[in-house]
Each structure stands twice: as structure tokens, then as C-alpha cells.
């Protein structure tokens, strides 16, 4: 983001907030452009960057509708079903495994 003011971590002026800070306030950016960025320097890697939005232009978060809540519940349930054994794992299946932990830990079956 060239041409944006850059502030050091915790030194942003009043009236600006990150996306997460807006969410805590019950607000959303509402399509406004990024007005500045925060940078937190790190020792061996590039800086952490957070984009800032104006609080006065932010709008309230839209309420969750029943249809949206149902779609979200369905999507979360699909992430809990093991494709190997078909059971509900009780947790989100890790994408690194692609199956529940008991199926991943089980010895491979030998086809005769």
C-alpha cells in the first residue's frame, strides 16, 4: 500500500482502528479504503502490518439472519465429518491430516 501513512505499533492517532478493533466496537469498515497502516518490527522477519480504518466512517455490523446462521452451522458440521470413517469427530478435521486423528493414527489396511 504505497503512499499510506505508517505508524509504529501502539502509536496510531485517535479515530483510527484496525479491523479487529472495529469488530470489538460492533462496527465494520463498510467499504471504506485503508487510510493508514501500523507496523510492528520483528527481529528476523519482516514487520507485522495492520491496516487502519476511520472509526467515524464505520457502520454497525449486520445482524446474523436465521438463514445465514443455518448455512454457517452446516458448513461447520461438514468440516467435522471424517471422510475416511464418516463419523463426526467432535472437532474440526485438520487439513494437514485430511481425516480424524484416530483414522490418521490407524495402521494402513492391506488389501488382499
What does this structure look like?
The structure is a single chain. The chain has helices spanning 19-24, 66-78, 101-105, and strands at 6-8, 16-17, 27-28, 36-40, 48-54, 59-60. β4 and β5 form a beta hairpin. It is an alpha+beta fold and 112 residues long. The strands form 2 sheets. A 4-stranded mixed β-sheet has the order 1-4-5-2. It has a two-stranded antiparallel ribbon with strand order 3-6.
Write the SSE topology.
Elements: E1 6-8, E2 16-17, H1 19-24, E3 27-28, E4 36-40, E5 48-54, E6 59-60, H2 66-78, H3 101-105
In short:
By secondary structure, this protein is of the alpha+beta class. It has three helices and six strands.
Strand tally is: 6
Strand order of the largest sheet: 1-4-5-2
**Share of helix among residues?**
10-25%
Structural class, from secondary structure content?
alpha+beta
- pLDDT average, as an integer? 91
Element-level helix/strand string = EEHEEEEHH
Largest sheet: 4 strands, mixed
Question: What is the C-alpha radius of gyration, as a whole number of Å?
Answer: 22 Å
| DSSP summary: helix tally | 3
Question: Unreliable segments (pLDDT under 50, ≥5 consecutive)?
Answer: none
Overall 3D form: flat
- What is the terminal separation in angstroms? 59 Å
Q: Give the percentage of residues in beta strands.
A: 15-25%
Amino acid at each position: 500500500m504505497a503512499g499510506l501513512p505508517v505508524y509504529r505499533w501502539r502509536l496510531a492517532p485517535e479515530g483510527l482502528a484496525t479491523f479487529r478493533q472495529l469488530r470489538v466496537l460492533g462496527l465494520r469498515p463498510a467499504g471504506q479504503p485503508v487510510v493508514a497502516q501500523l507496523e510492528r518490527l520483528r527481529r528476523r522477519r519482516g514487520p507485522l502490518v495492520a491496516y487502519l480504518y476511520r472509526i467515524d466512517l464505520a457502520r454497525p455490523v449486520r445482524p446474523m439472519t436465521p438463514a445465514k446462521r443455518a448455512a454457517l452451522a452446516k458448513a461447520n458440521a461438514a468440516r467435522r465429518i471424517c471422510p475416511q470413517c464418516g463419523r463426526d469427530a467432535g472437532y474440526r478435521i485438520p487439513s494437514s491430516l485430511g481425516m480424524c486423528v484416530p483414522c490418521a493414527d490407524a495402521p494402513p489396511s492391506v488389501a488382499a
